[in-house]
Amino acid sequence: MTMIFVDAAVSSPLDVFSEDAVSDQVDISGHLTSTFDDVVENAIFEHPTLVMDVNRVEQQYYALKAGLGGADIHYAVKANPAPEIIERLVKLGSHFDAASRGEIELVLGAGASPSDVSFGNTIKRASDIAYAHAAGVTLFSADAIEEIEKIAQHAPGAQVYIRLIVESSEADWPLSRKFGCDRDMAIDLLDRARALGLDPVGLSFHVGSQTRKASMWGPTLDEMVKIWDAAKEAGHALSLLNIGGGFPAFYGQDIEAPTDYAASVMDQVRSRFGEVARVMAEPGRGLVAEAGAIVAEVMLVSRKSSRDLHRWVYLSIGRFSGLAETEGEAIRYQITTLRDDDPVGPCVLAGPSCDSADVLYEKQPVLLPMTLKSGDRIVIRNCGAYTSSYSSVGFNGFPPLDVLVI
Ligand SMILES: *Cc1c(COP(=O)(O)O)cnc(C)c1O
């Protein structure tokens, strides 16, 4: 195996500390020309590192866009805020869904136009609303009277859309009742927005993250169109439907191809809503998850007693350093090792920190090679979404997840 030493603190072009045989992979300026796969398989990293393939993000953007047709893609920045990804998406003409001042600064700094940025968090600081308004952002979300009042005060005249609660989620990672309001409240909010001089343009919802099948959108869209029609009857000429995220990534269970999935969602939207002037989609996971892999290592393989059925495999990455979505074992990442040709057996998979919650998979054990041992390289596939952005700054002295974009 060719060893490539990469300083992950430096993103592309890669700085390479070459050993013997890397010269064939280094161009005349001394920079690595290696592909994503080469880096994921061969590069030596000091710490667990998320390697992102920005060309793969581009490919996925076009695939989703092909299915979404006239709908605007507002990338949900929180899924992966790496500046190289934001910059590429700006070049491709993507719009953005930002959740905070920090995310707005990030996308504007990468060249996004403020008119292409929506401030989609329903829980915003008043000073962040004022900042966004001053920066030229004109579209805000709300699900509460007090939020409407904050927006009216700090972003007078802005466009607002109302987020609805979705009860019918079949998502692997549902977004619960934290966001949204019910139908009657939504109409009150539209009225209130208009009374306060805002421009109430539409409605939004989120079917829940990792909604594996497009057909699972049906019940939610059925609910939404009733509210849409009720709002129209109440005198609101709505022009904006924000269908949120939920577009899935491959984690081992079958999913539809992104273009087919997006086209099917749009068909379902059209058949219920007819022609809506402006449809927004906010993919996060579906745009970036499959473009990333984490390179980490095995720290320890052990048994708790000589009669223990399962091995415990402890990795250098865990719940607090990027794998938060293993909570409830909801998202099951694909793990590959250099020993995948050897016989496999079940194990409990855990992270390295001194917190008993830092167990990744236990209820449903993971099959890994019986020969696995400490120091082995492991690769966690399709984890470009909600990993770097969920990594703690240094719980237990473990550094946050390094990110390398190529
Ligand atoms: C997180 C989020 C998204 C992205 O959801 P995915 O399931 O990752 O596509 C979209 N819209 C809003 C408002 C969000 O909070």
The oligomeric status of these chains comes to single chain
| Anisotropy-based shape | elongated
Task: Note the gap between the termini.
Answer: 21 Å
Largest sheet: 8 strands, mixed
What structural category do the secondary elements indicate? alpha/beta
Give the H and E element order.
EEHEEHEHEHEHEHEHEHEHEHEEEEEEE
Assigned CATH superfamily of the largest domain: Alanine racemase
Beta-sheet strand percentage?
A: 15-25%
> What count of domains describes the coordinates?
2
pLDDT averaged residue by residue: 91
CATH architecture type of the largest domain: Alpha-Beta Barrel
* CATH class bucket of the largest domain: Alpha Beta
Please estimate the helix content: 25-40%
And the CATH topology of the largest domain?
Answer: TIM Barrel
**Can you tell me the residue ranges where pLDDT is under 50 for at least 5 consecutive residues?**
1-33
Please give the number of β-strands.
19
Report the radius of gyration as a whole number of Å. Answer: 23 Å
Folded structure, characterized:
Pathway: Amine and polyamine biosynthesis; putrescine biosynthesis via L-ornithine pathway; putrescine from L-ornithine: step 1/1. Residues 56-289 form the Orn/DAP/Arg decarboxylase 2 N-terminal domain. Belongs to the Orn/Lys/Arg decarboxylase class-II family. With 406 residues, the chain is an alpha/beta fold. The protein has 2 domains: 3-53 and 290-405, Lyase, Ornithine Decarboxylase, Chain A, domain 1 (Beta Barrel); 54-288, Alanine racemase (TIM Barrel, Alpha-Beta Barrel), CATH 3.20.20.10. The chain has 10 helices and 19 strands. It has helices spanning 36-42, 54-68, 83-92, 101-109, 126-135, 145-154, 183-195, 218-233, 258-273, 285-288; strands at 4-6, 16-18, 43-44, 49-52, 72-76, 95-98, 117-119, 139-142, 159-163, 199-204, 240-242, 278-281, 292-302, 311-315, 334-337, 344-350, 359-369, 377-381, 402-405. The strands form 3 sheets. Strands 4, 13, 14, 15, 16, 17, 18 and 19 form an 8-stranded mixed β-sheet that branches. It is elongated, with a radius of gyration of 23 Å. It binds pyridoxal-5'-phosphate (PLP). The site of pyridoxal-5'-phosphate has 16 residues, from helix 10. Pyridoxal-5'-phosphate binds next to helix 10.
